[in-house]
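With this grant's support, we have paired protein sequences with backbone structure tokens. One protein thus recorded is set out beneath this paragraph:

_____
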Amino acid sequence: MASKANDSLMPPELEIGSKPLLIMFNGVDRPVLVDPFDGGFREATLELEALQGKECLYCFQGEWLLMFDGGTKECFLVSLISLSRISLPPLLTPLENLYMCALSSPTLPDCTIMFIAERIKYGGDDDDDEEEERYLVYCRPGGEEWWEVDNETDGTYDAMFDKIVGSQGTMYVRTEMNTFVAVNAALSSSSDAYIERRGIQHPSKMRWGGDKYMYAANPFTGDVVELPDLPWLGEQFDGISFSSPPNSPNCIVCSIHKERVSNQAQSNTIYVMVWRTGDKQWTKKKIEDHTEFRTAYSNPIFYHGEFYCLGTRGNLGIFNPNNMTWRVLDKPDPVLVGDPMPGEQYCHLLEFRDDLIAIFRPHDKGPIDLYRLNKSQMVWIKIDRLDDEVVYVDNWNAIMMPAPRDVCCNRIYLPKLGVYDEARDAHNSAFYDLRSRSYYPNYYGLTERMNSIWILPNFRDQ
């Protein structure tokens, strides 16, 4: 099927702007539009000579393509919606040296295009003495050439860039030391460019302090409890939990992580991080554990004074924050066969009415399984019905509560939306019905908000 981008013969489901589509570049052949949401992968040829034989370096705003001709070094921007074309200077920097790319603002052509680039730097008289260095390459539409900005450093800053983003005429480039450099993008030559290094002196106010800054926030009251900076590798945990509300005087925060190696018999170290209200820093505990217990990606549950952790097979490990000890229970026996790796499915542990509930949710349309711990016999009992309860699960947490209406019973609500209106907006929560063992409206074709979580507000205490 051949068609121009603005041709009326283009199938309606493949009209540019109707929904997200994939563009496949096939060397000297014409690019092909593909609908990834169609089970048959419907496709159409995009007859734009400007794209034929060119290489796409980047896509901005889902509309503008940054194109490159390897033979002539020609570089330009083209809009797939308006078919507008913006010429850029020839790009002489080798493509293998280019990494991330960003625009200083979305107002093309009044903007700057900037790459993070890398090259080998030779030092001293020894030809073998070499190291990689990052620098910036940029241009403006209408300019005559691409300019470079070196990342000069006196050794007190990390010279390695890894992320770049543009906002309101300034390019922000992050470093591996969790500082960032700000580059004025309203420039026309390398002599106009300068790098201003900015540290984050008050991360509690900026809400950004790198990977090691953590705080607890109440989204309804705006209250924030700041936690100390995490020590080295302290952010690598499988789950984290609070013993009580973070603003209470006796609150304990606990995170747990177990080493992951291909040979499970060699994975014998548990790392625990503990913080108590009033502590100036985290307490780190390294505990030897020679069992085959493998922690799931699941938040621990503070239960009867200890933190209970769910294993990938359904067994339980317990950390006691008072004497800083760890033990793996002989019972309950695992409910899953084999030795699944963390991440193979969603695993949740929750407490409801003094019962421990384990939930195992696959990444496909397979059934969701629930188990209740029989504390007298220490065995998992499979739950087939929730006649008076409803469950909410997301990718990190799970909540069980009394069903507010009879229609909600036996349902497990997912962090996804379905049932679309005429504007193609999803407005109904998708759920799994325990009785019918089915997903509604369906497992596929749903919308999921990024990093969405279920929360249970307590307005009586607000």
In short: Residues 1-14, 154-158, 197-210 have pLDDT under 50 and may be disordered.
